[in-house]
Amino acid sequence: MIRQSTTSAPAGQGAPPVPSLRNPGKPLDLGAVRGVRVNRAAADHRAATLVARRSVKGERQAGWLLRAVTMIDLTTLAGDDTEGRVRRLCGKARRPVRSDILRALGVRRDEVTAAAVCVYHGLVPAARDALRGSGIPVAAVSAGFPAGLSRFATRLAEIRDSVDAGAEEVDVVITRGSVLRGGWERLYDEVAGFREVCGDARLKVILGTGELGTLANVKRAAAVAMTAGADFVKTSTGKERVNATLPAGIVMARAVREYRRSTGIRVGLKAAGGLRTARDALSWLVLAKEELGDAWMDPRLFRIGASSLLADIERQLEHHVTGRYSAFHRHPLG
Question: Which domains does the chain have, with CATH numbers?
Fold first, then answer.
C-alpha cells in the first residue's frame, strides 16, 4: 500500500480507515432477489461515458497507476505453473515497480507492493514461503476452479487444504447453473458452506459474469453471494469467453452499494479476466471510486486480478518519468 507519496494519488487517501470486520452475511430474502431488475441500456451508457467524463493525466495519472499496482492480485493460473514460476512471481509482488522509476517519482520502494499473489491451491506452500515476512497475503483459487462443477464435498475439501496450507484469501467459483436455473437457495447454501470452511481466510466469490446470461442475473448472484457471507464479489475466472466488462462491474458495484446501505457492511469488489492495459486499470478505478466512493480506493475493498497488466502499468510509469516507452521485456514478471 502507498503510505505517502509526492505523486498525486486518487482523492480519498484521507478517508476514515476501512473496518476490518468480516461480512457475517444475513438470511436470504428470496423476494428481494427475484425482484431485481437491471436496465441494460442504462448500464451500457454508464459504462461508455464513465472514463470519458473523468480525464486522468500527468502527475495524477501516475498516482492513480501506483495505486492500481497496490490493488493487483498478481496471478498465475496456467496449466504449466511450477514452484519456480510462483517464486519469481512472488519476487515481483514484493517489488512490482522498478526502483529507478520509484526514485524518480519520489516514492520509497517499500511503499508499493502488490495486494496479493493468487495461485492454484496446490502451489500455496511455495507462495507462502516466498512471501514470508512481506505482509503480502497468498490467495488460492479453489472449489473446483474454474468450472465449479466438482462435487460439493470435494470443493469444500479443496478450500480446507488451501487454508491449512496457509492461504489467507480464497477465491472460489460458484456453480453458474444455479443462477441460470434461478436456484438462489442452492447458491446461498453453496456460498455459506464455502464461508464456513474458510475460517479466518477472506472469501472472494467469483460469479463468472460472462456466463450468467443477463445483467439482472449478475446482480442477483452478487446479492446472494454477499448475503451468504462473501467478503468480495469477483467478476470472472479469466477462463471464460467473456470476462470482466464495465457494465457487469457497474451492476456488481451497485449491488455492493445496496448491501452496504442495508447492512452497514462494506464488501469488496474484484475485477479479473482480460484486464491487460493501464487504461483498463484506470477505468476500473474510476468505476470503483464513482460508484462506491473513496473507501473502496483501498486494497482491502478493491482488487484487480491480473498478470500482464502490471507490465503495461510499469511502462506507462516509465514513460511519465522519461518521456519514452520501453519494450515489455524490460518489465518482466520474474
Answer: 44-330 (3.20.20.70)
Clarify whether 171 is annotated catalytic.
yes
Task: Check: CB of residue 334 under 8 Å from CB of residue 76.
Answer: no
Beta bridge partners of 268: 232
Known catalytic residue at 29: no
C-alpha–C-alpha distance, residues 106 and 96, integer Å: 16
Helix (H, G, I), strand (E, B) or coil at 41: helix
Q: Which of 92, 204, 219, 270 is catalytic?
A: 270
pLDDT in tens, the chain (334 residues): 333 333 334 433 344 445 546 899 999 999 999 999 999 999 999 999 887 766 677 788 999 999 999 999 999 999 899 999 999 999 999 999 999 999 999 999 889 999 999 999 899 999 999 999 999 999 999 999 999 999 999 999 999 999 999 999 999 999 999 999 999 999 999 999 999 999 999 999 999 999 999 999 999 999 999 999 999 999 999 888 889 999 999 999 999 999 999 999 999 999 999 899 999 999 999 999 999 999 999 999 999 999 889 999 999 999 999 888 776 666 666 5
234 is a catalytic site residue? yes
